[in-house]
Amino acid sequence: xxxxxxxxxxxxxxxxxxxxxxxxxxxxxxxxxxxxxxxxxxxxxxxxxxxxxxxxxxxxxxxxxxxxxxxxxxxxxxxxxxxxxxxxxxxxxxxxxxxxxxxxxxxxxxxxxxxxxxxxxxxxxxxxxxxxxxxxxxxxxxxxxxxxxxxxxxxxxxxxxxxxxxxxxxxxxxxxxxxxxxxxxxxxxxxxxxxxxxxxxxxxxxxxxxxxxxxxxxxxxx
Length: 222
Hints:
Elements: H1 3-6, H2 21-43, E1 48-54, H3 65-78, E2 84-90, E3 95-102, H4 103-111, H5 113-121, H6 129-145, H7 155-159, H8 163-171, E4 177-178, E5 182-183, H9 187-209, H10 214-219
Helix pairs in contact: 2-3, 2-9
C-alpha cells in the first residue's frame, strides 16, 4: 500500500478495491482511533496525544502484529508531511502505544519558561522537541514494561494542560473539577478550558464522520 492511499482513508475505510480487506480494516480502525484520541493535535489546539492500538497475533480486525507495524510505519512516514509526528511505543505483543505530536506546539512547550524548568528539573533534555519527546516515550515504555516504574504524569505539561493542574495532580492535591483532565484550580475557568478542547475536537470528529479523508482533515487545521 502506498502512503497517499493510506492517507485517503475515511471513516468508511479506503476506496473500494484499493487494497486487501485486512489493510482496509486496519487503516479504518487507525484513522478512527487517531481522530477520536488525537483530534486536538489534528486541530492544532493540543501539542501531543497518546492512544493505544491493538496489535495481537490476530486481533479483532484480523491484523497480525507484523502487519500492524508495517501499516503504522506507512503512517509514520506520511504524517510528517502534514506537520504531525507519530512515535510507535511497543508495549507488548498485544498492544502498541502511539504518541502523536506537532513539532511547532511542542516547541511552544519548550519555550514556556515554567514548563521547561519543571521538565528540565525532572531530567528531560529540552534542547529540542525531538529529544523531549524521545525522553517521554522512553519513560512511557519503561512504565509499560517494568513493574517498578511509575507513569510519567508530568506528561500533562506537554499535553498542554494548565501547569497548576499538573502540579496539583502530581502532589496529590484535592481536585476541584473533572473534565478532559483533572483540575485543581478555579472550576469556572477550568470548565471554560474543557469546553474549548471539547468543541474543537467535536468539530473534527464530525468532519471525519461526514466522509472527509484523514489527509484533508489534517490540512484543515485552524
